[in-house]
Amino acid sequence: MTALPPLREVIAQYGLSASKALGQNFLFDGQLLGRIAAIPGDLANAEILEIGPGPGGLTRALLTAGARVTAIERDRRCIPALDELAAFYPGRLRVIEGDALDIDARSLFEGTPAIVANLPYNVGTALFVRWLSADWRPWWRSLTLMFQREVADRIVAAPGSTAYGRLAVLAQWRAQARIAMTVHRSAFTPPPKVMSAVVHVTPIDAPRGVRFDVLERVTAAAFGQRRKMLRQSLKGVPGAPAALDTLGIDPTRRAETLAVDEFVALARTLSN
Ligand code: SAM
């Protein structure tokens, strides 16, 4: 084969009609896919873990940029199309059929891959929180993930905004998170109901002495009752009222007024 067939032909050839149940909304625009693939930086010989390649549009863009890609796809119908892509790029694409939620992706790499994914909302958010909970510094170099715009806003939100919550704190306490680009719904086939955005996350040094599970518990309690004062919402977290006092955090404040650093300080006090 001297050239790859256009993606729409691949879809027709392998009968890859988009499945709603699998959250399939495909991207075909090569220029747009190239811009997404450029977000993690120079990919020459870089290791990439791609989750949910589908018919392989983004995979093509990553390979064109010089990456070595390991792709995990749950939909068996897509595997022959991906195998064809692997044959076109010998030794550069490893295709794994399976559910990314069940696979220990870390064990697939010796180095530190960049992760790239365009996934359905529920799977994307579950994997995102899992990747953020890794031992730090994590086994991945960066995360470049397509989300619904509203979820992307929650990840990068600043204190005081309605979007600020558990996801913002978990994403920002030891990583930098930014919206790298927004993607119009009409770019997808079929178009989803809402707009999308690509979030790029890179790890930074973790604050010392803080346990992830404790931070998770504190943020879940605080934002679980976000309209309530901290003294009420953190009642069920042992030691929290005393920790607020020690740290000089006014217990009549509400969760959304606390900076990420203040949540970190609370979790540190409770991690001892
Ligand atoms: N990356 C392709 C693109 O941009 O055109 C496809 C994106 S589509 C929104 C999401 C893909 O993730 C689908 O191919 C779907 O089958 C796959 N997928 C959904 N859940 C998955 C899971 N748990 N593990 C692996 N792949 C999954």
TrEMBL record:
GO molecular function: 16S rRNA (adenine(1518)-N(6)/adenine(1519)-N(6))-dimethyltransferase activity; RNA binding
Subcellular location: Cytoplasm
Pfam family, one: RrnaAD
Protein keywords: Cytoplasm, Methyltransferase, RNA-binding, rRNA processing, S-adenosyl-L-methionine, Transferase
GO cellular component: cytosol
The enzyme's E.C. designation: 2.1.1.182
Domain Ribosomal RNA adenine methylase transferase N-terminal intervals: 32-205
Classification via InterPro entries: KsgA/Erm, rRNA_Ade_diMease-like_C, rRNA_Ade_Mease_Trfase_CS, rRNA_Ade_methylase_Trfase_N, rRNA_adenine_dimethylase, SAM-dependent_MTases_sf
Residues annotated for S-adenosyl-L-methionine binding in this entry: N25, L27, G52, E73, D99, N118
PROSITE patterns: RRNA_A_DIMETH, SAM_RNA_A_N6_MT
Catalysed conversion reaction: adenosine(1518)/adenosine(1519) in 16S rRNA + 4 S-adenosyl-L-methionine = N(6)-dimethyladenosine(1518)/N(6)-dimethyladenosine(1519) in 16S rRNA + 4 S-adenosyl-L-homocysteine + 4 H(+)
SUPFAM superfamilies: S-adenosyl-L-methionine-dependent methyltransferases
Physiological role: Specifically dimethylates two adjacent adenosines (A1518 and A1519) in the loop of a conserved hairpin near the 3'-end of 16S rRNA in the 30S particle. May play a critical role in biogenesis of 30S subunits.
Family from the record: Belongs to the class I-like SAM-binding methyltransferase superfamily. rRNA adenine N(6)-methyltransferase family. RsmA subfamily.
Protein name: Ribosomal RNA small subunit methyltransferase A
